[in-house]
Amino acid sequence: MNIELNALKDIVVATAETELLPRFTRVKRHLKTDGSVITEADLATQQKIMDALYSQWPEIDFLGEEMPAEDQTVLLSSGKPLWCLDPLDGTSNFAAGIPHFAISLALLKEGRVELGIVYDPVREECFTARYEQGAWLNGDKLTKQSTEVTLDQSTALIDFKRLPADLSTRLVQEKPYASQRSFGSVALDWCWLAAGRCHVYLHGRSNIWDYAAGYLIFQEAGGYSTTLQGEDLFINARVPRAAVGALDKRLFDAWVNWLGITLN
Predict the structure, then answer these.
(1) pTM: predicted TM-score of the whole model, two decimal places
(2) Does domain 151-259 have CATH number 3.40.190.80?
């Protein structure tokens, strides 16, 4: 299956320009049954990308975040190659006028993430990756960089909202890092970590469409990850995953040790 990343980039960038940016700060938000936010931009973006993908690769099935849960489960269990799309990762930011959101698209094949693309239309940053071939930011290869930063000097990306209460309390009271951020886009979290903009990561619950593309980009940039249970992060199923990560192995080991994780 020979799919060019540039062809995918063209689809994603064009859709962001026609469906996302014109609606930014001009769209009403609505709540889904689970309490999460959805806008017309989510739906329009998903439809346009789905149509474009089917037009070029009709043999590949499609899963979008805004599809019914039962359809998503069936698609993931089919064993067939599958596009996995989050049409607007960071919807709450988008709806509030905060310029931090992205389109995240992955190709799932044989139980792994084969291709990934995350596009930030505000900064015009396109992160891409291909399994076992590397990751890139706007065409420049992302390479693993060791840092002299220790855990207590690090900047951490932490999503407190979805963490166990006891862990959130411990993080606040003991604060193992120097500084903490939460930007509201899982896909961009992984990409910013891959680019070395933050040092350690912790998220208590993200879905496959949130993390698949960003996870591959981070992995291909040389990063290290696990779950809070010490398992491999990616699973080809509709099962929310906790995520722990760091680009630097020494920092990853220190972070995992502080969290008390035993790697499987």
Answers:
(1) 0.94
(2) yes
